[in-house]
Write a structure and sequence with these properties.
It is a single chain. The protein has a two-stranded antiparallel sheet. It has one domain. Helix 3 packs antiparallel against helix 10, helix 13 packs antiparallel against helix 14 and helix 16 packs antiparallel against helix 18. It is mainly α. Helix content is about 75%, strand content about 0%. It is built from 21 helices and 2 strands.
Length: about 525
């Protein structure tokens, strides 16, 4: 079996789960085992995709139904896409173990895992596809699953409100993206990534021809694409849906949304920017997009870090932290330099792990205490030492203190920003200081604050095991950063920026070479 079709694995099993659950009368043990097996299988297959991609000098190609691009849909997997497919499947796999214990008192878990597997399928498709329209489809798959998961607590009013608002705003984003696809097809006669890049560079590409004046349509299409993906990645001013949606969802889903789903917007922005970089005819439009991304990213980082200090709801504090880090990534995308791309890829990876750890750690406190308010969690840290240590490692990591993983990706961000402007470095430092203040406040309430809170709490072993695994990873990646940058990040950066190689890989398949 060609493992490049791995998004179809969780999708197929997602459709089968409700039927099997009905046949087995909602047997909870079966549903839990089913979710573990499917996410585990997907993780194993993604490991194979990752290994194959990193052992190949060119992107991997899979044509659906034997229809070649640009007529058919293809998956074109470079090292960048393979890395985040692996990151996605790994986090979804281990969060499944966490979810089983977290949802032990909930009903309807078969629907939870149906949406969960659909969400995984959508995310994997986003990172693996080589077709802009298929990217739209996978964005929709991801979004629909995410809406349902945000509203999982149906008996509570606010999750429903947050989920509906999330759905409306996200739908506006995908509508903008769909309109952009229409413009691109009108101008270029294709929506295949490699074909778009080839047409923009004046390269011959089999089958399709330029349909119209692509210079006229490109600027408007890029404006719509930029706005669409700033919604998906919660960049200011399109950030306002995220704190409510991410804090209302069950904590394991909050970890997935903040650690993985928001990556889709950054990935889309980066992919389209790379396709049209270095072409004189498009340089003005791309420069405008880059300037906008740097400006909005800087504002996002500063405003989100300030907002973190104003809240006493632990999940909202962590949710605003996500907007902060999306700001860093947007600035890195806007740089359009090799070191900026390296910083973006490395920080995107590190943020995914660190943010998942932080939301999962906070989730255990909420699970045991039944509240998200710092005042209600006061003093619980001393009675939950492993959870508190894991939370501390997550906060130290996300602030960017050594020897954690984010310290090293922030160091690369620092040098990338410094090449552009000292002002960007000031944004990085100031926002990190504000975030540190917020995290210190959180740890103060959990560990130092004296309280008469006698709530009986415990540390569920399966949930804590997931925390400890992620905490060790955050430290290990930090300690081994030079090796990881050399072996993983640098190759992904080089191939991501090699648009000619991306084009040639698709042409070779068309030519049967």
């Amino acid at each position: 079996m060609n493992t490049l079709i791995l998004p179809t694995i969780p999708m197929a099993f997602a459709f089968a789960l409700p039927v099997l659950s009905q046949v087995l009368k909602g047997n909870r043990k079966f549903v839990n085992a089913y979710a573990i097996i499917v996410t585990g299988l997907t993780f194993v297959l993604s490991l194979d995709v990752f290994r194959t991609a990193y052992s190949s000098e060119k992107p991997l190609i899979y044509t659906f139904g034997g229809w070649n691009a640009p007529i058919g849909i293809i998956y074109e997997v470079d090292k960048f896409g393979a890395l985040f497919a692996l990151t996605t499947s790994f986090l979804m796999f281990i969060i499944t173990f966490y979810s089983i214990r977290y949802l032990e008192r909930e009903t309807g878990v078969e629907w939870y895992y149906t949406l969960y597997l659909g969400l995984e399928a959508g995310l994997l498709g986003i990172f693996l596809t080589g077709d802009a329209f298929n990217l739209f489809v996978m964005l929709e798959v991801t979004a629909v699953a995410a809406y349902g998961l945000v509203m999982f607590y149906t008996e509570e009013g606010y999750p429903a409100y947050s989920g509906v608002r999330y759905a409306i705003i996200s739908s506006i984003g995908t509508t903008f993206y769909f309109l952009a696809l229409g413009l691109l097809y009108y101008g270029f006669g294709t929506v295949n990534f490699a074909d778009l890049a080839a047409k923009a560079r004046g390269y011959p590409f089999p089958v399709s021809e330029v349909a119209g004046n692509f210079l006229m349509t490109f600027a408007l299409a890029m404006a719509l694409i930029t706005w669409a993906f700033t919604i998906k990645s919660a960049i200011v001013p399109n950030h306002f849906w995220l704190p409510g949606a991410h804090s209302s969802a069950p904590s394991p889903i909050s970890a997935v949304l903040s650690g993985l789903v928001v990556n889709a917007g950054i990935y889309g922005l980066a992919r389209f920017t790379w396709l049209f970089t270095g072409i004189s005819e498009f340089e003005n439009a791309v420069n405008v997009v880059s300037t906008i991304m740097i400006g909005l990213g800087a504002v996002s980082a500063l405003l989100a870090s300030l907002a973190m200090t104003a809240h006493d709801d632990v999940k909202r504090i962590v949710a605003y932290s996500t907007i902060l880090h999306m700001g860093y990534l947007a600035m890195a995308v806007g740089l359009r330099t090799e070191i900026g791309t390296k910083a973006m890829i490395f920080h995107m990876l590190n943020h995914s792990l660190g943010k998942a750890l932080l939301f999962l750690a906070v989730g255990i406190f909420i699970h045991e205490a039944g509240s998200r308010k710092l005042q209600d969690l006061a003093g619980l840290g001393k009675r939950m030492p492993l959870t508190t240590v894991s939370l501390a490692i997550a906060t130290i990591s996300l602030v960017g203190l050594p020897p954690t993983n984010v310290f090293f990706s922030k160091l690369v961000l620092y040098y990338a920003y410094l090449e552009k402007s000292v002002a960007l470095v000031v944004v990085l430092v100031l926002s990190s200081v504000f975030a540190l203040v917020s995290y210190m406040k959180m740890l103060y309430w959990l560990w130092i604050k004296k309280t008469e809170n006698n709530t009986e709490v415990k540390e569920p072993k399966s949930m804590v095991a997931v925390l400890l695994l992620l905490a060790v990873l955050c430290l290990a990646i930090g300690i081994l950063s030079p090796l990881i940058i050399e072996k993983v990040i640098d190759p992904a950066t080089v191939q991501a920026l090699d648009v000619d190689g991306y084009i040639q890989a698709a042409i070779n398949v068309l030519g049967g070479k």
